[in-house]
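User: What would this chain look like folded?
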Amino acid sequence: IQSHVVYGAAGNSAAVFPMRRLGANVWPLNTVQFSNHTQYGAWEGLPTPDEQISLLVDGIKQRGVLDKCDAVLSGYLGSADQGTRVLEVVREVKAANPDAKYCCDPVMGHPAKGCIVPEGVQSFFAEDAVAEADLMCPNVLELGVMAGGNPESVAECVEAARELIARGPGVILVKHLAHAGRNPEEHFEMLLVTVDEAHHVATPLLPFDRPPVGTGDLTTGMFLVKLLHGLAPEACLAHTAAAYHAVMKATMDAGEYELQLVAAQDQIAVPKRRFEVSAV
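Assistant: Here's the prediction, encoded as structure tokens.
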């Protein structure tokens, strides 16, 4: 349940194809449909009316298939009311399948650009979503907003993630450590935290003049699928980092701004280059 663009890769347009390529049957529900992502500065399209989120899920429920849903993934929300609708969906799915997981990607902004969502959305993620999510995938900015701080190191990120874990989710994937990483000038770093373990991985930071959009949507979707396949969380992190790097490398090699998901599809499934995951 997140945004969609007709051209390019952001929201569901960045997540659905990779998730399917990894073997998941995805039911995309789009919260907006835009011509392209907003970083171009101009776009066309409209948000999905809030009530339609509930109506679409009601229609799926009438088909008698909600018990086949193993997880709900939510991403960008345009309003706190959309968040309330998402949690209603999560409860419906879990009533039909008690083993289903809720993966929340609390999209609020970028470490270099600050928050871009209304205050109500920030508080929804920090309070309501944290209480109900099984898995959360913030970047370092979003982690700080939800934990009530500004983590500046890997150790502080682990501490902040554990503060969230104490309030609900069992797994936190910090999908972009940015300035809090060990070597942010040269590496793109991710951190995985559970109640009693933490793991770190770094991939080479590629020199894009204009970094692609949608990388967080991509990594969250891939990590969730590998988790649903039964892999240990650190193995999910290893695959996600390797596949992420393969997509970025394919994008750079093509000289493109938009993520080259189709070109990288084989390495999304089976990455050629792997990166060391280390315990923290």
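The radius of gyration is 17 Å. If you want, I can go into more detail on any region.
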